[in-house]
Amino acid sequence: MKYDVIVVGAGLSGLVATAEMAEAGKRVLLLDQEPESSIGGQAWWSFGGLFLVDSPEQRRLGIRDSCDLAWQDWLGAAGFDREDDEDQWGRKWAEAYVDFAAGEKRAWLHSLGIRFFPVVGWAERGGYLAEGHGNSVPRFHIVWGTGPGVVQPFESRVRDAIRSGVVDYRPRHQVDELITRENAVIGVRCSVLAPSSAGRGEESSREVVGDYEYYAEAVVVSSGGIGANHELIRQHWPSRLGKPPRAMLSGVPAHVDGRMLGITEQAGGRVVNRDRMWHYTEGIKNWDPVWSKHGIRILPGPSSVWLDAKGQRLPAPNFPGFDTLGTLKAIQDKGFDYSWFLLTRKVIEKEFALSGSEQNPDLTGKSIRKVLGRVGSGIPGPVQAFLDHGEDFVVADSLRELVDGMNKLAGSDLVKLEDLKRQLAARDRGMDHAFTKDLQITALRGARNYIGDRLVRVAKPHKFLDPAHGPLIAVRLHILSRKTLGGLQTDLSGRVLSASGDPVPGLYAVGEAAGFGGGGVHGYRALEGTFLGGCLFTGRQAGRSIAKL
């Protein structure tokens, strides 16, 4: 079979690009090094949050949003400062993406059968001035069905194309080289890997049982970033985030190792913004891991008290859910690779959600009855499982018992009882009246002005030292690797650019491999809901561009 296009990577962006090209009649070879069980890649594991602007869901909740406000927030977060070089195309992609999120994105997804949970989340709240980092309003739209619900319509379109003979899907094909002729990419050289029964996300064998070369008029790289390659993360770790952590958890499977970025560079593509990355600070060890160092991110409401390894409150605005990378730097500057949440049962019942499709069976399974349970009292089942089995949780009826448990878990005596008691008592005094200088209390009171937070996300403010709201809970938090914000520099058609700024003939990149657009659509910081969205948008743009050729 003669192919028009080869797509390297069957994650979300690769599926989107493949679907767009196949429906235009292009003959596509879709290659992936993992077994078929992992089709959909990282997106399948995601919580399914998407960044939308001025949506019907927002308007129904009284949220007034606009493209201008979203662009202001994007610029405040991105901080583009390499616009004559590495940020040149990232900024162009950002402007196009914000227009897309405020325009046809929702209608396009709706036409594919994607629906949204009616309560819009408020992620990355910022905590700075109006032009600083953060979302000014809630924009985090959770897909009904979470990550699998995002993947499904594109996987279905691709499988239809496979059945019709337009797409040839070959898992267990590891691309080792991009074949070039006269500086143009004309194909790929692969190692054929041994069949594997590994389940989704599980590490698969790299035993080589053959090799093959495939040729086409264009090659699309959709192989993801470097999130599981901790050595490479540390190599490119920027000093502005403090020292790189000595220990990290992995928020992505082992195959997300950045291998194809180096291979694409060898073929003439340019990788930019290597020092820009996105790692979470609220990671906990998965008590039932799928991959090595498997971590789960807590999606916290704003009430938990955030402590460093010595039990000192982090300074404003390092509150849960406000500024991921700002808090990462604050933690790393302390010289430890972990921190603590301190909270009450009342807080964990209302505010703790866990990222990932498998941690949200109600939303993933599209169960209205189970979702309604989030409005009531009680600890969600997946969170209770971590309380019962997870090694990072300490539960106690008194502050003394809690401190003893924290120190035992950490293998130190860094947290001092009297010191922590003083800080919590000072915080609790802010509950006695309507006035306070504690900005975290001001923030959580403000959050409850939004009906979505008041209903399902933010506990009623209360005193942590009051036994009526207990028991007390401490959660040890680890740094959790996740996303690569830099990547292959691309123009708005998805064509990979060389060091000279010219397109490499026949070579395209989409998704995380392209920094979600242009080699860094997010700049220095992301606004959440924009990683899946970046995969959708870049796959769509490149697929439609190639389809016209």
Describe, in short, the structure shown.
The protein is built from 18 helices and 21 strands. It is of the alpha+beta class.
The radius of gyration computed from the alpha-carbon positions, rounded to a whole number of angstroms, is: 23 Å
Mean pLDDT: 96
Please give the CATH class of the largest domain.
Alpha Beta
Overall form: globular
N- and C-termini, Cα separation:
19 Å
Secondary-structure arrangement, i.e. CATH architecture of the largest domain: 3-Layer(bba) Sandwich
How many distinct beta strands? 21
CATH topology term of the largest domain:
FAD/NAD(P)-binding domain
Kindly give the count of domains.
2
Return residue spans where pLDDT drops below 50 for at least 5 consecutive residues: none
Which class best fits the helix and strand makeup?
alpha+beta
Helix content: 25-40%
CATH homologous superfamily identity of the largest domain: FAD/NAD(P)-binding domain
Number of helices: 18
Q: What proportion of the residues form beta strands (DSSP E)?
A: 15-25%
Largest sheet, in brief, is: 8 strands, mixed
Domain FAD-dependent oxidoreductase 2 FAD-binding: 4-532
Keywords: Flavoprotein, Oxidoreductase
Protein name: FAD-binding dehydrogenase
Pfam family, one: FAD_binding_2
